Every structure is written in structure tokens, then in C-alpha cells.
Amino acid sequence: MVDTTDIEKKSxxxxxxxxxxxxxxxxxxxxxxxxEVGHVKQMVTEVHGIVRKMGEKRNDxxxxxxxxxxxxxxGVVGWLATHYVKTL
Length: 88
Fold this sequence. Notes:
Elements: H1 6-10, H2 12-87
């Protein structure tokens, strides 16, 4: 915390001016922090969107693999069935 100066102790006007300057600096720092938090929020939102898209893409890949495997199994079952029917 900022200590009061000797001149502030003796002059109310000086104290008021110095306090006003301190408040201006605090407001400037708060505005800077708000801007930085806004940037962080924007980046988090972008990262969240990217992660969501990656998850959707991965789900699509898993579905495609599942369809491929099921198709291959049905093909093998069909082939076995045709060969088994021929032998009867």
C-alpha cells in the first residue's frame, strides 16, 4: 500500500490530488486486467470449439470403422453361407 507523503499530511488539496492520481492508476490497471481476461476468455472459447470439433471428427471416424467392420463381417457371413449352401 502507498504511504502518505509529508505534503499530504499537511495539505488536504495535495492529498486529494494524489488520491485522484492513485485512483486513475488503479482504474487503468483494472481496465488492463479486464482486457487480458477478455482475451483469455476468447482463447478458451476458441479452444473449446476446436476440442468439440475434434471429438465430433473422432466420433465420425469410429462410426466409419464400425460400419466397415460390420460390412466386412456381413461379407464373410454371406460368403460362408453361399459356400455352405453349395456343399449341401
